[in-house]
UniProtKB/TrEMBL annotation:
Residues 3-118 form the Response regulatory domain. One of its GO terms (biological process) is phosphorelay signal transduction system. InterPro entries: CheY-like_superfamily, Cyclic_di-GMP/3'3'-cGAMP_PDE, Sig_transdc_resp-reg_receiver. Keywords: Phosphoprotein. The modification 4-aspartylphosphate is found at residue 52. This is Response regulator. It comes from the Bacteria. SUPFAM superfamilies: CheY-like.
Length: 376
């Protein structure tokens, strides 16, 4: 049964709601707004919440406004015996009220409002799940395509995702999804870029003017590729500005991404964390000072991995490549920094049947897995 919550300061009214509606809904009640907020946080999610307008301590408008913050998908119904025009307007504007009912409310009217509220809740959650499923599928296809088209770019994006995750924890960023997606797709514009150009960027070799132009275009191309995908507009903005110098006008995610990219580039060339931070701090005006401070804290913390050089038959899901996986002829199959998963391990096993692969290969093994792997 669909869950509904009734909030009122009078117990006998709550008991009446429960007795009359318990065969149709999973009814919860809360005596007073504070109890209602606690119920939303601990017993939810609810399809619909019904609140009285006049309650001591916090009126129904303020309660439903708070309820919206806690559970935005839950539909909100206001029930009152004396609603003026101003109260009605405030309820709609502040609490985003779905229905406004007056007491005494006939049971058929209340039941119809509850059923409409439940339908609205189902519609909202179904649409979100559909979008999330589509989004997950789209991200998977794009990253797998990048891995096949340009393994170096894919490996770079994997390393950046991990680095951005560490930075987010230090900065206590509450919502990291958009930033993580931007990191994963930061090099999606490199899909058609010749791999040797990105290899030169990674090693610090000088680019020709044509190569520099092609490489500098990848943020714009990547942003264009994803900007019209539902819910990825903000991600596209971050990707487009990933090479920009510090400005409070660009998204915070782009400032984080810019620093992570430059840190990774220096680390990939063999510099130590202290050397990297010295170089980065010397680039005046390039980075957000607060994010640079967070990077210093993140770089000084343990990364939670041990390094081992192993044969490919010991590869396990969750290990991170410490070097490129190379086939004879210097063909890069998987780039350094790639986190191994079942699909990539299987792909390497299939390729090894036809091509000789250089072994052993250095990998980073999560400390939690190192004991069980038998590689310590």
């Amino acid at each position: 049964m669909d869950k509904v919550l009734f909030v009122d300061d009078e117990r006998h009214i709550l008991d009446a709601f429960r007795n009359n509606l318990r065969k149709r809904f999973a009814v919860s009640t809360a005596q007073g707004p504070e109890a209602g907020l606690q119920a939303l946080e601990t017993e939810g999610p609810f399809a619909t919440v019904v609140s009285d307008l006049k309650m001591p301590g916090m009126d129904g408008v303020a309660f439903l406004s708070r309820a919206r913050e806690i559970s935005p998908d839950t539909t909100r119904i206001m029930l009152t015996g004396h609603a003026g025009v101003e109260a009605s307007i405030n309820a709609v504007n502040q609490g985003q009220v779905f229905r406004f009912l007056t007491k005494p409310c006939p049971m058929p009217d209340l039941l119809a409002a509850l059923e409409a509220g439940v339908r609205q809740y189902r519609l909202i959650t179904a649409e979100r799940e559909l979008l999330h499923g589509t989004l997950r599928g789209t991200i998977k296809v794009l990253t797998e395509a990048l891995g096949l088209a340009n393994p170096v770019a894919f490996g770079k994006s994997q390393r950046i995702k991990a680095l951005v995750g560490s930075l987010s924890k230090v900065m206590t960023i509450k919502s990291t999804l958009e930033l993580e997606l931007a990191a994963m797709l930061s090099h999606i514009g490199c899909m058609g870029l010749p791999q040797n150009i990105l290899e030169k960027v990674e090693t610090g070799d000088k680019l020709t003017s044509q190569e520099f132009y092609l490489y500098s275009e990848h943020p714009r191309l990547g942003a264009m590729l994803i900007q019209h995908i539902p819910r990825l507009g903000g991600v596209a903005e971050i990707i487009a500005a990933q090479q920009n110098d510090y400005s409070p006008k660009i998204p915070q995610g782009a400032r984080v991404l810019r620093l992570a990219l430059d840190y990774d580039a220096l680390k990939n060339r063999g510099s130590s964390p202290n050397e990297i931070l010295f170089v980065l701090r010397g680039r005046k005006g390039a980075y957000d000072p607060d994010i640079l401070d967070a990077m210093e804290k993140a770089a000084c913390s343990s990364d939670g991995y041990i390094t081992r050089c192993i044969s490919m038959r010991h590869f396990k899901k969750g290990m991170v490549l410490g070097q490129h996986v190379m086939a004879v002829g210097n063909i890069i199959l998987l780039a350094s920094g790639t986190e191994l998963n079942d699909a990539s391990i299987l792909r390497l096993q299939e390729v090894s049947k036809s091509f000789s692969i250089h072994e052993p290969i250095c990998v980073l093994i999560p400390l939690d897995d190192s004991q069980g792997s038998g590689l310590l």
